[in-house]
Amino acid sequence: MNIHINRFLTILLISILMVACHAFNEENATLIRRTPSITPDYKEVTVPVNMAPLNFVIDEPGAFFQVKLTGENNSQIRITSSNGKIKIPISKWKKILTDNTDGRIKVEVFTKENNRELKKFAPFHINIVKEEIDSYLVYRLIHPGYYNWSEIKIVQRSLENFKTHSLLENQTINKNCINCHAFNQNNGDQFLIHIRGSHGGTYFMDKDKLSRHDLKTDAMPGSATYPTWHPSGEFVAFSSNQVRQNFYSQRSKSIEVYDLISSLILYDRSSNEITNITDTNTATPLQTFPSWSPDGKYLYYCDATFCDSVNLAVDATDIENIHYNLKRRAFNIKDKSFKEPELIFDAAAINKSVSFPRISPDGKYAIITVTDFGTFPIWHKEADLHLINLENGEHKKLALNSDETESYHSWSSNGKWIVFSSKRIDKRAAVPFFSYFESWETIGKPFALPQKDPALYNHMLESFNIPELVRNKVNVTSRNFEKAVKQSAKKAKKEQGLENIPQWTKRNKEAKRSHLEKGIHE
Amino acid sequence: MNNIKHIKFGYRLFLVGYILIFGYYYWLGDYIFAFQENSFLLVWTPEYLIPFLLKPGGILELAGKILTQLYMNQFIGSLILSGIIILPSVLLYSIDRKLNTDHFVFSGFIYIIPTALLMLLQTFYYHFMEYNIGINAILLYSLFSTHHYKKKKYYLPLIMLPLFMYVAGAYTLVFIGTCIVLCLTQQKKRGILRYFLVIILETVITIVAFQKYFFLQPYSQILKFPLPTLDIQEYKLLLFSLGAIIVLHPLLLKNNALKLALSKLRYFQGIALVFILLLTSAAMYRLYNPQVINVIKMQKLITEKKWDKVIDFHENEPSRNLIGQFFYNIALSETNQLCDRLFCGQQDFGPKSLVLPWDNEHLNWGAHFFYSIGLINEAHRWAYEEFIVYGAKPQNTTLLAKTNLINGNYARAEKYIRLLKHTFNYRKEGKELEALLENPKSIMSHSEFKRRMENLPKNQFFIQVSDPQNNIPLMLKDNIHNTQALEYQMAWYLLTKDVSSIIGNIDAFKKADYKALPTHIEEAILAYQNSTKKNVNLSEYNISEKTQENFRKYVSSFTRLKNDKKSLQSYLKKEFGNTFWYYFHFQ
C-alpha cells in the first residue's frame, strides 16, 4: 500500500516539475520589447543597501508569473506568483543587495496566460548604493480629510524590513487630533508632537522623558504650530498661525488652507519662555515654516505680505495673490537674538510661493516646495520640490517631481537620501517616496516606500503624512502618552517686556464660521 | 411527568411567540431592516475585518454586523431578528431547568419578560443587532456556567472567562453580576465565597491585563464597549430593566416555592402573561413613531433612486419631518419637477427643507442637494466627512465612488469601488461602477452622471459652507443651463415668498431653454400681478390657461370666504393646497 502511495507521489511530483519547467522554460519564451508594467514603479530606481525588499505587483495579464533577480556577481533570486504579487524573501534580498553594493541587479519578468505562450519582458534594473538610509521612517497615518478626523496614528516603520510600531494612536487619548511631529536632527530620542483636543498641548520627548506643555501665550496669534528644533536641543522655533480652510467649487482643486495671521516664535526650553522672532506687528508679513540650518546659525522661514489681513474678505483671488519667499535670519545663541532678514529665494518675483524649507545636513542645499501661490502645498496639484544651492543661490526644479502634488520632505542624517510626500498614486492620499541625492546634478529616480503587501497602495485610503527619517528606534508607545496626557500642562511664559503687544483677536468676520471648522472630537 | 408537560408547553409558547414576532417584523417593523442595513458597510477584506479582532467585544460587534447584512432581505431579516429576540426567553428557560432539575415549574410570564423588553428596545432603530447578541451572549454563558456548576466543574467557566470577555467585551460585566447573584442564592455556602472571590479577582485581572498588555483601548472603552450608548431616557430605562432581569433572574428562578404557589393559582400565570403582552403592545404603540418610520422608508427609496416613489410616498403620507421633506425636494429636483410640484407635498420648514445646514446631525443626508445641482466637490466633501466620522456606509461609499468618477479621479474611485465589490449587498453596484472605470468615456453618456458633468461649476469659487444656499447663484453665474440649480434657486424664492426675485429672474428660464414656465412660477407671477397691478415682462412666455383658470377660482373662493377664516383655510387647503397661493397665504 505504502509503495503504491510513494509511487503515486513520485509521479505526481515529476509531473508538476515537468509542467513547471515547461511553463517557465526561458528558452521558449516570447520576448516582449518593452519592460513590464509594475506597481509601485521600481524600474531603474536607486536604493540604499539597507532598504527593505521592493515588493511589487506585475500589472500584466497572466495566470503564472515569475521574476528573476540577477546580481552582477550572478547571484540570483527567483520568485513565482499566481496573482502577480511579487514578494521577495527578506534574507535573500538582503544578501543580493549586499553582494551587489554599488552595482545593480537585473530584474526579468515572465508571465504566462492560460494556454498561451510564455512571455519574457525586457529587463529593468535596480541600482544599489552603499550610503545607507536612516533605519526608520516616522509618519502620521491619517485620512486626508476636511474638518473631521477619526483614527490617527503616529507610526514608526523600519525601512530595513516591514515592521511597524505605533508611537501614538489617538484611540488611547479620547480621539484627540494628533498634529505635527518633529525630531531634532533625525534623532529618535528627541522629538515633539502637538495634540489638539481635550488633552491638548505640545508633548516633548527627551531621553525617555515625556512631558506636556502649553506653549500658547497672549503674545501669539495662534497656538504653536510648525516646529523646528535648534540642533542644541535648547530651543524650538515655531510658527504661530491662525489657519483657515476653504473648499473649491471646481474639480481641478479641492481645498485651500491659508493663514490669516502667522508669526514666528522661539521657545527656550530651559527657561520655559516664549520670545517673538517676528516683529511686533505680525499681521504683515505672514511668516511661517521655520527651519534651522544644521549648525544652528540660521533660521530659514517663508515670508509673505498679506495686505490688510485684518479687514480682508478672503476669496479665491486674494489667496492667489499670496506668495511666500524664502528668507533667513542669523541667530546668536548667546543672547537669543536674530539679525535682519536676508532674502534667499524671491519666489514672488516668478509668481511662485515657497513652503517647507529643509536644509541639507552639510548646510549646502535647501529643498523647498514650490507652488503657484499660498502656503499649504499638500492640496496644490502643481506643488513641486526645488533645490537651492545656498552657496551660490542657484535653484532648480528637481527631476523627481510628477504631475501630482509633491509636498513635505526631509533629509536623511547623512544627506544622501530625501523622503517626500507625493500624491502621484491616487491624487488624494500622500505616499512617501525616496530619492538618492547623489549631487546637485544627479538625483535618483524616486521609489515608493516598499510594503509587505505590494498592492497596499492600490486600496489604502489613508495618507502618510509628514514623513521624517529617524536614525534610531523611538522608545515611546501610546501607553506613555496615555500617562502623559494626565499631566497638567506646563504653561510657557512670555518674554518679559512683551506685555504691551496687542492681543491677537480672531477677525470678527471669521468668528461666525470658526465653530463650523471644528471636527466633532474637538 | 409534570416536568415533561411543562417543557412541552414552554416550547410551544416560544414557537407561538416566534411566529408572532416574525409577523410583526415582516409586516410592521421592517423599517428597522432598512435603517440598520444602511448604517454600516461590511467590507470583506482583511484591513476592514482585522480591527474588529483588536478590541474586546469586537467579535460580538462583527457578528452583529454580519447578521445585519442579511437585513437586505425582509423575510430573512424577520427570521433572524425574531429568533434573536425570542432566544433570551429560551435561554432563561433552559437556565431555569438547569437550576431546578428536581422540581421544575414553568413560569411563562417570567420567561417572556426579556423578549418583551428586547422588542421594546428594538423600536428604537439605533438598537443594533450586536446589542441583542450581547444580551444572548450573557445568557448563553450563564447557561454554560450553570451547566458546569451543576456538574461541579466550577473551573471551566472561570478558565473561559477571559476568552468570553474578549468575545463579548463589556457584556461580561453583566454576566459577572448574574454570577454574583447566583452565588448568593445557593443554599450550600461552602466554597461559594471562594468562587465569588475568584471570579471578581479574575475579572479585575483580565481587565487590567487587556488594558496593559493586549489591547490599546483605554479602561473607559473596555468597561463600556460594545454596550448600547443611546442616550434616550425611555431607552435607558428599558435597558436597565433588562439588565436587572438578567442579573437578578437567579433569584426569581431559584425561588421554586414562590413559582409553585403562583402556579397553583390557576389563572394567575395566564393573566400575568396576557398582562405583559398587553403592556408590551401598548408600550410599542406609544414608542412607534410613524414620522420617523416614513423618513427611513423614504431614505431607502432615495438610496435606490426611486424618485417617483419618494414623491408618491410623501404626497400620500405627508412627512412632517425636515429630512422627509428634504428627500421629497431632492426627488423633485432629480425629476425636474421642483417648480412644478413643490407644493403638492407638505412644506412645513420653508427653505430649510431645500438645503440642510452643515452640521454633524445632517452629515449623512446633506450631500444629496449638492450632488443634485452638480456641485460635486461639496457632495464629495459631505460624503467624505461622513465616511470619516461614522465609517463606511453604503450611501457614503457609493457617493465617494461616483463623485470621484465624475471628477475624473479614477484611481481614487477604484478604491471605493473595491470596497463596494467586497460586500454582500453592493457587489453588483460596485461592478457596474467598475465597468465605467474600464471605459471612462462611458461616464459622459451615463444617465446619472451625464447631467451632473454638464452641471459642474464653470467658474472657480470658494464654497459657502455656513450658508450653502449661497452657492446656487454662484453655480448659475456661468452656467445658465444648470436647470437643477435654477429650480433650486426659484424654489428658494417660492419658499421664502420672495415673489419679486422670481419676477426679476423670469428670463433665466428663457436662457435655460424652458419651453414653458413651471406651474408654481406662473402662480407666483399671477399673485404678483394681482397684488401690485403691475405688468410683468414674461420673456415671451404665456401663463397657461389652466393656471389662469385656477387663479380665478382661487381669488373668487378667497373673496367669497374671506370673512370666515376657518372655512376659508380648510376650503382653500382642500381645493388649492398644492398651489403657491395657498402656501403664500397660510404657511
UniProtKB/TrEMBL annotation, chain A:
Residues 487-522 are annotated as: Disordered. It comes from the Bacteria. Gene3D superfamilies: TolB, C-terminal domain (2.120.10.30). Pfam families: PD40. The lineage of its organism: Bacteria, Pseudomonadati, Bacteroidota, Bacteroidia, Marinilabiliales. This is WD40-like Beta Propeller Repeat. Residues 507-522 have a biased composition (Basic and acidic residues). Belongs to the TolB family. PANTHER family: PROTEIN TOLB HOMOLOG. InterPro entries: 6-blade_b-propeller_TolB-like, WD40.
UniProtKB/TrEMBL annotation, chain B:
Keywords: Membrane, Transmembrane, Transmembrane helix. The chain crosses the membrane at residues 9-28, 75-95, 101-121, 155-183, 195-215, 235-253, 265-288. The keyword Electron transport does not apply. It comes from the Bacteria. It holds the Pfam family DUF6057. This is Transmembrane protein. It comes from Mariniphaga anaerophila.
